[in-house]
Amino acid sequence: MTSPNTIATRPTGRFAHKAPKESVPARPVPFAIYCDGGLLSPNPSSVGGTWAFVYVDEANEEIYAESGLVTLPQVAPSPTVSNNHSELAALLHSLRGLPRGWSGTIYSDSHVTIERFRNFKIGGAASREKLEKTVPAVWVNNLERKKKELGDLGFVLLAGHPTKANLEAGTKGDLPVSIHNKRCDDLCNEAKARFWADSRGAWFCPSCSYEGLAGCAASCPACGHKRLISSKEKALRPCVAAKLESSAPARQAKPDQAQAEALANAEDW
After folding, report:
1. Phi/psi of residue 226, each to 5°?
2. In the chain, at which end, N or C, are there fewer CB atoms within 10 A of the end residue's CB?
3. Which tens digit of pLDDT belongs to each residue from 160-190?
C-alpha cells in the first residue's frame, strides 16, 4: 500500500496541451476524499496554482496523498489562474483512476466547486455552456465523464484554513473542519514552496532592475521601491518583461527560459 506521505509528482511532456489521459499511478481505493486548491501568487494568479487531495480509509486514516500545479496553459484562454480553477482541479485530480461506480463522500472548503459538480447536468447544453464561460472545455469533459462513471457522491463543505483551536473544537464558525483538509492545505503550500525554490532570483524591481533575494519582498533592498514582481513571473510572462524593459533603466536580468519552458510544458491531467 502507498505510504501516507507519498506525494505523486506530475511528469512533463511536449503534448501537455492535449486532453488528459486516464492512465494514472496505482492508487488505493478511498472511503472518502479531501481536496483543496491554492495559488502561486495573489488571486487571480498570473503565475499558476496548486492542488492537493488526500484519500482516507474507513478508520479516517490517510492512505494516499497527491499534489501538483495548475499552469497557465491548462486554463487557457483565461490569462490567469483563479482560486476556483485550483479548487476544481483538486477535485478532478482526486477522481482520476477511481473504479467505475465508486461512491463516497468528498470534503472541500470550496462552495463554488461543490455546486459546480452538483449542478452540472450530463448532456445538458445549457449546463456545459455556463461552465465553459469560466472553465476550460477539457475540464468540463472530465467533470461530465466522472459524473457518468461514478456512483453516488456526497459532498461536505468545510471551513478552510482551520487553526489549532478550530481543529480541537471541530468547527470554525458554523462549518466543520478537518485535519485532512489542513493536510491538503499544507501540501498546496509545499508545492508552492517547491515551485519558487528553484527560482535563481526571487524578485525583480521594475524601478532599478534589481533582481535577487529580497526577504519577504516588502520592498527593493537596492532602491526601496515597494512594487516588486517575482523573477519567475517576469520570465513566464513576456509581456510583463517587455513592459519593464521599456521603462526600467540600468541592466535587465535575463528571464529564466528553462523555467518558463518547464512550466509551459507541465502535463495536463
Report:
1. -100, 0
2. N
3. 999 999 999 999 999 999 999 999 999 999 9
